[in-house]
């Protein structure tokens, strides 16, 4: 769980005064959050999970997309449940809880789960190396079996905690320890990691009868979470420490000897060697400032690329030697040019990204209260340009974090663009994506918190929409692919933090983008090296040669982007994202100066910012023909008694407590359909359909309020007769 990769991102502030009046915040009344079978929130029939067997083992298909082994030509989209439990959030459930939880995940539309920080949970309170807590191990094994029974595949981290399986530590979820760095250089650290895989992945699960590493349910192993060398250095940066760990010095000198042979040759290449730096004595220094550009920094990047590629290959061989057949990835964050080169030989690319990152839960923690639409979905674009075309692409973590008041955007921004890009897995990071009830007696379940979407009605509404927009395939994948040419090491500059420029990544709002090994002189269509082109010129060329539809409304100067499919429109100036498809129409908006006409759905008025979506529930699920629709309306939510240090609500003083409060909101809606009879019923957060609040005959239009008689909600069921 880390969003530091966004610290370098450009920030555009979108003004919006917070609401303070007590009558604008409505307490949630539900206690149970278990979705009722057969309710409008039960997607198990709309999105059924297949039985996991040899034929339904996930593989990389011939075009680089995830598919089942029995149908390699047919891509599958995987909606991922992030399971990053700790004792503070309740830990792994007992057997009954695991059965209920896995079943609920299937009802919510999840078909893959990522187990994150399992090493920390297994070693919590343990004093001897590899002395896994037996009860926790049993619970993990049972949960894996329960997930499999419900058709939910697994993603597992080979290493999450920098403490690994060493005994005697009580800070396993913190950024202390240097195991992730030492894996690249130290034989003892590598042997420790290897034994961890043997002890956990290689151990037979008594509830499945097979070791996880041989199980058809295990789709992907991330060798180590966020283990890039440069990123690890940033995580451990302290004012009193040099920027680079001394463990890098000797390997770096050995690498320089192979490249330059002599001190004199190195001095000519760098031009800044000090008198006491000599290759012959291995005394060449690491850069003294990671943010100062220099030839020394360029060579350090090249060194890191070589080390990281070699390290990933060596760790992958361990898993293959143990009999693992699934996909392998690593270096799953930090979208820089250097890390892109380190990822080029991986079987699959995994990436983490966050909008408005929050550093912790302590008083004084702060965010920026900015809109993701206002910076043209930069957190999505950064990782889109880190993808390698022709390989499965997995978003192993993303979030638009609580308590940002624009986080309703995440339910449309990431699922819609993930579908447009044709990404394979989408995983919104959390302790767990759902909870079975409000009021569980654990520190991280007593209030909504960052990185904990289960208790947040706004985030949950977004995940509900993601199941339809992304997994069901309501938004189509672009037929246009825009490769970003990669030559190799010569693409490295003197800036360690360099990444693909914004003037190129905004192409991800129009068509599929990704890295591709290419001689720029032979690249017919795409972004060449060096990156001097601007997206407006590339799109103009696309129009001239007929790749982009002539009516496409994209205007880069105005911040207006229409997808090549015509289904997604982002308007930066107005803070709006619109999606119009055959099955779902939706809009996220920071303001509504004039009505939004999406086709079937028209949003005529709103009293504040929010997300509105209309999705067909019938089969086939088309808005012109369906009789049952799920209507999503998300505004904002806070905890009771939240206290901020500032009027703009950027700096937290106290997260408060339950019950959750939903910000009251109203929108006026109309559909371009008529019916002999129609009715609109609130749907509780547990799927309970309550008595209708609106009904009529003929034209369908109504004022929608989330202040429902049985309590505030984000869901409504619209039903038509005749």
TrEMBL record:
Transmembrane segments: none annotated. GO terms for molecular function: hydrolase activity. Residues 1-21 form the signal peptide. SUPFAM superfamilies: (Trans)glycosidases. Gene3D superfamilies: Glycosidases. Coiled coil: none annotated. Keywords: Hydrolase, Signal. The keyword Transmembrane does not apply. The keyword Secreted does not apply. It comes from the Bacteria. This is Glycoside hydrolase. It comes from Sinorhizobium chiapasense.
């Amino acid at each position: 769980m880390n969003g530091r990769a966004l610290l370098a991102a450009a920030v555009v502030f979108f003004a919006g005064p917070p609401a303070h009046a007590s009558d604008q915040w409505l307490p949630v009344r539900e206690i149970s959050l278990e979705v009722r079978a057969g309710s409008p929130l039960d997607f198990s029939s709309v999105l059924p999970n297949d039985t996991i067997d040899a034929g339904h083992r996930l593989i990389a298909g011939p075009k680089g997309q995830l598919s089942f082994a029995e149908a390699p030509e047919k891509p599958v989209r995987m909606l991922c449940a992030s399971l990053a439990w700790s004792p503070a959030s309740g830990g792994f459930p007992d057997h009954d809880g695991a059965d209920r939880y896995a079943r609920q995940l299937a009802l919510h539309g999840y078909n893959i789960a990522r187990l994150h920080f399992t090493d920390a949970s297994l070693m919590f309170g343990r004093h001897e190396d590899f002395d896994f807590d037996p009860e926790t191990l049993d619970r993990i094994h049972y949960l894996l079996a329960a997930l499999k029974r419900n058709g939910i595949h697994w993603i597992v981290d080979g290493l999450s905690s920098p403490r690994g399986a060493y005994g005697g530590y009580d800070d396993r979820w913190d950024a202390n320890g240097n195991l992730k760095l030492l894996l690249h250089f130290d034989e003892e650290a590598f042997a420790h990691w290897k034994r961890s895989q043997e002890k956990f992945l290689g151990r037979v699960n008594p509830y499945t009868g097979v070791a996880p590493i041989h199980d058809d349910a295990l789709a992907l192993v991330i060798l180590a979470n966020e283990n890039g060398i440069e990123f690890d250095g940033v995580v451990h940066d302290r004012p009193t420490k040099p920027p680079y760990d001394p463990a890098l010095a000797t390997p770096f000198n050995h690498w320089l000897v192979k490249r330059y042979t002599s001190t004199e040759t190195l001095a000519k290449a760098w031009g800044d060697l000090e008198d006491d730096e000599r290759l012959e004595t291995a005394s060449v220094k690491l850069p003294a400032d990671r943010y100062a550009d220099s030839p020394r920094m360029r060579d350090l990047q090249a060194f890191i690329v070589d080390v990281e590629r070699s390290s990933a290959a060596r760790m992958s061989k361990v898993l293959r030697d143990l009999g693992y057949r699934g996909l392998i990835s690593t270096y799953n964050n930090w979208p820089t040019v250097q890390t892109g080169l380190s990822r080029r030989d991986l079987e699959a690319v995994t990436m983490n990204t966050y909008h408005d990152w929050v550093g912790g839960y302590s008083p004084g923690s702060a965010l920026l209260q900015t809109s993701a639409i206002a910076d043209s979905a930069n957190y999505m674009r950064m990782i889109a340009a880190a993808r390698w075309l022709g390989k499965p692409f997995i978003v192993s973590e993303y979030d638009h974090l609580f308590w940002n008041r624009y986080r309703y955007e995440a339910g449309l921004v990431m699922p819609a663009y993930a579908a447009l890009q044709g990404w394979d897995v989408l995983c919104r990071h959390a302790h767990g994506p759902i909870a079975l009830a409000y009021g569980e007696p654990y520190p991280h379940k007593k209030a909504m918190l960052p990185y904990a979407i289960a208790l947040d009605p706004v985030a949950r509404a977004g995940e509900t929409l993601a199941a339809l927009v992304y997994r069901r395939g309501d938004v189509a994948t672009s037929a246009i692919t825009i490769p970003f040419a990669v030559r190799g090491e010569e693409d490295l500059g003197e800036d360690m933090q360099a990444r693909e420029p914004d003037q190129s990544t905004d192409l991800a709002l129009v068509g599929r983008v990704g890295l591709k090994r290419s001689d720029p002189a032979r690249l017919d269509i795409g972004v060449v090296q060096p990156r001097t082109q601007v997206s407006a010129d590339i799109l103009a060329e696309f129009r001239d040669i007929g790749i982009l539809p002539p009516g496409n409304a994209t205007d880069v100067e105005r911040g207006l982007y229409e997808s090549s499919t015509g289904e997604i429109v982002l308007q930066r100036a107005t803070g709006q994202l619109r999606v119009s498809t055959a099955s779902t129409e939706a809009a996220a908006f920071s303001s509504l100066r004039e009505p939004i006409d999406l086709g079937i759905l028209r949003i005529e008025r709103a009293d504040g910012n929010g997300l509105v979506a209309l999705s067909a529930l019938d089969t086939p699920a088309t808005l012109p023909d369906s009789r049952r629709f799920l209507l999503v309306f998300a505004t904002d939510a806070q905890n009771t008694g939240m206290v901020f240090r500032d009027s703009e609500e950027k700096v937290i003083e106290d997260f408060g407590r339950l019950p959750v409060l939903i910000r009251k909101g109203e929108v006026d809606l109309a559909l371009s359909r008529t019916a002999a009879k129609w009715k609109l019923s609130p749907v509780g957060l547990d799927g309970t359909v309550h008595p209708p609040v609106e009904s009529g005959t003929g034209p369908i239009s109504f004022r929608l309020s989330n202040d429902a008689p049985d309590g505030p909600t984000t869901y409504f069921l619209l039903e038509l007769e005749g």
